[in-house]
């Protein structure tokens, strides 16, 4: 049986504060698989039932002209728009 996927993305700085192995273990006990989002193939990693993120840093980069950050923010926003039942932890 395939586990429901929970996508997550944190900046490198915030990632150091999160114990991904423990987070994944907790999710698996409850029937979920943790997937660290890779924006280069974001759509292919889903479907996600929830996304946990801290993309504030990326949003600030996008506002300051970073094309890569802007594309990534747009990708996640488009995914949210196409999946209205998606649970967003820390909505945009």
UniProtKB/TrEMBL annotation:
<dbReference type="GO" id="GO:0052726">
    <property type="term" value="F:inositol-1,3,4-trisphosphate 5-kinase activity"/>
</dbReference>
<dbReference type="Pfam" id="PF17927">
    <property type="entry name" value="Ins134_P3_kin_N"/>
</dbReference>
<dbReference type="GO" id="GO:0047325">
    <property type="term" value="F:inositol-3,4,5,6-tetrakisphosphate 1-kinase activity"/>
</dbReference>
<dbReference type="GO" id="GO:0000287">
    <property type="term" value="F:magnesium ion binding"/>
</dbReference>
<dbReference type="InterPro" id="IPR008656">
    <property type="entry name" value="Inositol_tetrakis-P_1-kinase"/>
</dbReference>
<dbReference type="GO" id="GO:0005524">
    <property type="term" value="F:ATP binding"/>
</dbReference>
<feature type="domain" description="Inositol-tetrakisphosphate 1-kinase N-terminal">
    <location>
        <begin position="6"/>
        <end position="92"/>
    </location>
</feature>
<protein>
    <recommendedName>
        <fullName>Inositol-tetrakisphosphate 1-kinase N-terminal domain-containing protein</fullName>
    </recommendedName>
</protein>
<dbReference type="GO" id="GO:0052725">
    <property type="term" value="F:inositol-1,3,4-trisphosphate 6-kinase activity"/>
</dbReference>
<dbReference type="InterPro" id="IPR041429">
    <property type="entry name" value="ITPK1_N"/>
</dbReference>
<dbReference type="GO" id="GO:0032957">
    <property type="term" value="P:inositol trisphosphate metabolic process"/>
</dbReference>
């Amino acid at each position: 049986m395939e586990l429901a996927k929970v996508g997550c993305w944190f900046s490198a700085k915030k990632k150091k504060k999160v114990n991904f192995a423990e987070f994944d273990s907790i999710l698996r006990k409850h029937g979920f698989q943790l997937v660290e989002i890779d924006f280069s193939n974001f759509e292919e990693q889903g479907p996600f039932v929830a996304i946990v993120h801290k993309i504030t840093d990326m949003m600030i980069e996008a506002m300051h002209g970073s094309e890569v950050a802007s594309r990534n923010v747009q990708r996640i926003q488009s995914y949210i728009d196409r999946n209205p039942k998606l649970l967003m932890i820390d909505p945009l």
